Automatic annotation (TrEMBL):
Signal found in the keyword field: yes
Signal sequence, renumbered to the chain: 1-20
Keywords associated with the record: Signal
Native organism taxonomy: Bacteria, Pseudomonadati, Pseudomonadota, Gammaproteobacteria, Vibrionales
Ion transport among keywords: no
Protein name per UniProt: ABC transporter substrate-binding protein
Amino acid sequence: MRKLLATSVLIATASFNASAEECGTVTIADMNWNSATLIANVDKFILQHGFDCDAELVPGDTMPTGTSMIEKGEPDIAPELWSNSMKAALDRGVTEGRLRYAGATLSDGGEEGFWVPAYLVEKDPSLATIAGIKANRELFEHPEDPEKSAFMGCPAGWNCQITAGNLFHAMELDKAGFELIDPGSGAGLSGAIAKAYERKEPWFGYYWAPTAVLGKYKMVKVDFGSGIDEDHYRACITKEECLDPKPTMYPPSPVDTVVTESFAERAPEALAYLSSRSFGNQQMNTLLAWMEDYQADGEITMEHFLTEYESTWTQWVSPEVAKKVKQALSEL
C-alpha cells in the first residue's frame, strides 16, 4: 500500500512539473488602454496560479505587438487585439503557422454608433431612430449657431472621424439642419456626454464601447433603419474618398485574443482557458467605469473582477483550476 501511495505521489508530482514545464515562461502584451490592461492582468493571474505558468506582462500596442508576434514569435499572447487594423497581416501569420486566433475577447465585438441619452428615449421613443432625430432636430441645440442643430462627431485625426463623417452625410443630417462638431479630443467628447447627463440635456453624437462612459451613463444607440451593409461599410464608409456613402449601421469590430503557434502547441490547457475567456460589452463598460471612479490600475481592477465576478470567470476554467486561483486570491 505504501509503495502504491508513493508511486501515486511521484506520478502526480511528475505530471505537475511537466505541466509547469510545458507552459514555461509566458509573455503577455499589456496594451496601453484600460480594458486591455485589465484583461492582461486577469490572464497573468489565472495562468500563473491556475496553470503554473511563469507569466509576465510586457508593454504592447496593436501594430507593434502584432508585427512582433508574426516576425519574432513574441510576446506569446495579445489578450485584446482589434484585428481589423491589421487583419491581412494577422491572417497571413495564421496561414504561415506562426499565429492562432484563440477566441473572441469581446463577445459582442467592439461597438460603435450614434447615441442619445436614455432619458430622451424614455420621454420620446422615436428618438431611438434616425427619423425621430431628424423630426426633433430643434432639441439638439448648437452651442454657437441657433439656426443649426448639433451632432458631436469623432475627434480629428482618429479613424472614426472618417466613418462618422461619411455616415453623417449618408443620412443627410446636414440637409436636415445638423452640423458636425469636432469635440477636439477624446476627453472633449466624453466630457460633452457627462455635461449633458448632469444637466439632463439633449445630446446626439458618436461614441463606442466598451468604455467607462457607457458604463456610467445609460445611452441608447440610434437605429438608422438600414441594417448592416458590411461590404459597403468596408469599401466606402471607412474611406476618406467615399463619394457616395449610404446608410449602414456599424458592423461589430472583431476583438480577438491572438497567440503564437508555439504557445498554443506547448500549453493546450492554457489555450483552452484563453479560448473560453470572453467579456460582454456591458460587463466591460461597468468594469471600466469602476476602474475610472477608483483611479485603479489593471492589477487592482483584476483583483476586483476576480473577487466580485466569480460566477463569470469560473466558467472559463475547470473546478480544479478555479480552486487554485481562489486560493491565490485569498492570499493577496
